[in-house]
C-alpha cells in the first residue's frame, strides 16, 4: 500500500472549484480537508495541523491573509500557498511577509499548485512580468468585487465615469 501524501487544508469559498480541486488533489495522493470560510479552516487546522495549506485570498469570515497568519501561528512548519483571482503585488508581498511560501493567481492547474508546495519547476508565465493592461484589468475586477458588483460605486471609487469603467470591464482578460 502506498504511503499517503501530505495533509492539505484547502480553504476556498467557491464550492464547485473547491470540490474539483479537492478531488484532483486527492487523486494525486494528498489527504485533503476542505473549508469554505476562515472560521471553518481554522477549526480544521486546530483539530489537526496540516502539512500544507492552500488559501484563497478572499473568503467569508475574514481575509486569507488573516488565515495565513493564524495557520503559521498554530504551526510554523505548515507550508502555505495563497491562491487568488484578485492578485496584486501588495497582497503578494504581505502574504510572503506573513509566511506564505508562494502566491499564485487563478487560474492555476494542479501541477502548478503542487510545484508551488514542492519548490519544483513552475509555469514559465509565473516568472514574467504581467502586462500593464492585465494589471489594470485585475485592479478593476478587484475594486468591482469590493463593491459587490456595483459598477457605479466602483467607478466612483476609481474616480472615473461609469460608462468608461463599463467599457473596460466588457473587455476580455488581457494576455500576460
TrEMBL record:
Gene3D superfamilies under this entry? Answer: 3.40.50.2300, Homeodomain-like (1.10.10.60)
At the top level of its lineage, which domain of life is listed?
Bacteria
Does the UniProt entry include the keyword Calcium?
no
Is Phosphoprotein given among the entry's keywords?
yes
Q: According to the UniProt record, list the residues that bear 4-aspartylphosphate.
A: 56
What region holds the Response regulatory domain? 7-121
Q: One cellular component GO annotation, for this chain's record?
A: cytosol
MF terms in GO: phosphorelay response regulator activity; transcription cis-regulatory region binding
Biological process (GO) annotations held by this record are: regulation of DNA-templated transcription
Keywords in UniProt for this one? DNA-binding, Phosphoprotein, Transcription, Transcription regulation, Two-component regulatory system
Q: Which InterPro entries match?
A: CheY-like_superfamily, Homeodomain-like_sf, HTH_Fis, Sig_transdc_resp-reg_receiver, WalR-like
Name of the protein this chain belongs to = DNA-binding response regulator
